[in-house]
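User: Assemble these into one structure.

Assistant: Restating your components, then the assembled model:
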Amino acid sequence: MTTLVYIIAYLGIVFFLIAVAARFVFWSRMPMHLRWELYPVAHEGGGRAAYGGSYLEESDWWQKKRQVSLLGELKVMVPEILFLVALREHNPKLWTRSFPFHFGLYLVAAATILMMVGGVVAAVMPASIAGPVARVLAILVPLFGAAGLVLGLLGAIGLYQRRASRDMRDYTAPADFFNLIFFVVAFGIALLTFLLVDRDFSLVSGFVANLVTFNLVPLVGGGAAAILLLLSVVLLSFLVAYIPTTHMSHFVGKYFAYHSIRWKDEPNLRGGDQEATIHELLNQPISWSAPHIRGDGKKTWLEAATEEPEEPPK
Amino acid sequence: MKEPQSVKDIAKNSGEPLARIEALEQIPLPPPFDKIDEEPPFAQLTDEEREKFVVLDDTIAVNIVKPESKEEEDRLVKGFLSGLEKLMTVEDNWTFLQPFEMSMEHCAHCQTCSDACPIYEESGENELYRPMYRSEILRRIYFKYVKKASTKVHGDIDLNWEVVARLIELSYRCNLCRRCAQTCPIGVDNALLSREIRKIASMEMGIVPKELHADGSVLQLKVGSSTGMTPLVVKDNIEFIDEDTAERTGIEIETPWDVQGADILLIHNAGEIMAWPENPGAFATVFEAAGLSWTLSSEIVAYDGINYGVWYDDVQFARVAVKHASAARDLGVKKIVLGECGHAHKALTVIADKILTGDLNIPRESSMVTLRDIIRSGKLKLDPSRNDFPVTLHDPCNLVRLMGIVSPQREILEAILPPGRFREMTPHGVENYCCGGGSGFAIMSGHNFSDWRHRLTGRKKFRQILEAFQDEPMDIEHPKYLCAPCSNCKGQIRDIIAYYDAWEKAGIYYGGLVELIVNAMVDVQPGFIDWEWH
């Protein structure tokens, strides 16, 4: 039984990583598109990002070195990821639900990573190092884990309630409700496990340590406590595997929405390295059927853009 | 207020409009237009119009004739699905594939976009105009009928000819200002989806408002300008403008044409030449006074900076952009400078950036930047006291939110206005509101469409303008200047000022930026801005 749960946990993590990687590859392989940026662009240098300005405010900008600020980008990205700043600014009502939900996920993920680190340290480090690390983790893991589960659970309930409200109900598919119920159940049982049988997270820490050291032994103690813990692990493993198959994978998409679209302001300079890609794309065949295009699957964009146009449709 | 109760209502086979706006339910404007029952009348569609065309709400933009047979109905549905499939391919839609897929896949339906949309707000939050309403219809069609995905996951919708026709019509209820996209926590872009729907209609089905296509980009490509001006006519008109400007300024000018090897090819929106001749006249005055090496081109298309394809059709867009660049290449200029036209700026500078290569890749610069540099150079003697009247600035979406050109126009105003005369709108800069004429609306006036845009799309901007001047006496004795450095914005603002009679009742006048510069030039006779309502 315990071995099966270990396997489920491995599969959950592996599936998550593969699915996220697949999403990442999908978005990164998209062809170059026409520029469609939106200002402010966070990496814009010269103090312009603060008011939404761009390098296009400079005369002869094509002859000058662009000022790009990684720090400026991080100053926007990090608060956005951690605190959902855009949502707080533009939709505070939803932020009160969405922020605890997302921050709860971060804390649970952080607790899990800390437990993994603890397992590895305990296995490979001498006691002089492993001991102090374990003492620190014994404080941080329950703190992050419990706070994360409480925030995540409250957030999921709040988001469910918001989705059921009049102005959002019609835009909510059954799967959206299912997703949130899934979170409520998985986080709820994990929280129950913490409250009833694993106040110091030692049981789950032991399980995670076994997982990262491939020591697939039964849990210490067994009984109802073990069953509750294993049930939590199974539910959380399925949840982890499920997330990237849904639109909840927007954490991957959002990266590309910002870096490949909203902030993608790199100009195509004459003789630059973008021109070869553009030539390739302009030679794609088009099949648009309207009378002024008459794409036949052979005519290319280049030909369509340079031919004499047809008469307008009557 | 009549409004759809559900996304699925778009498929209702009722023959009735899905939404109606009752003027009395709108939020009153600031004084002196705060009496809602005294607002100008909103022309209604006639019974004949409702009988003939697909009617979505109180107006008609696209003129889709109701199908008369099952075959015609099926053709609409098949054409739409065929176009939607093409949007998903690299071959047919590399131009916007990633932004399109991103907005289809990742919407969390959080409704943050709704609060950002001035049309939704000014409609009294009518469901039909919620930015996500049309996106959700497209998304459900996409998942159910193209990707064959579960409706339990992505939501359900029926698909019939009325859905297609209404959705196309609905794509012309969005200004494409992308304010909604700016606030989306994930990066979903409802305005882009409106444009993609327009692309399906135009590029696959041949359905487009005639003002944009037949009378717009097609005419421009055929005769040279959507105004109908041929090269001969445009030269005649500019000659007249030169004479008129010289009379007003006391400075002789002769606009240069087709000067080989000039530094700058200046491209105006030809609408300026027809409707606001003082604008090209002012440009010529400033450029000549600054001693620039510049020229206009009399090549077909190159004397009209408009590119309506940017609103509805990637192929038409590319055709016009290539013509603009070709003219610059043939003249051997160092750069193209775009006159006061927001969409021309964005079209040629930003969007065409990934189309123009090699010798067509001529650098493009905003006239806001060129004018700012002239002011900085000190070549013009300026007397700001000549502009001693209240001024506010409209930020054209294309120039500001979509290109990041925010500070040059403000630096110019600071140099040419006396202290304390300039006031910003709230909000402004990249968070501005659209004038209401964006995405082609400013030139669309079929049926009662102009009344509709005055009451809905332009209302937020008009509200902002009135609020900006609330510390001034609101009458014609105290003239105020709304500076709108964009031809389409000026068209919309002219119409809305006329609709509300805001010049007579509140002293609100409008114009471009370069006119204000000339008005402050010491070497020019005083009174270039004549405060004559045209």
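The CA atoms of residues 12 and 336 of chain B lie 50 Å apart.
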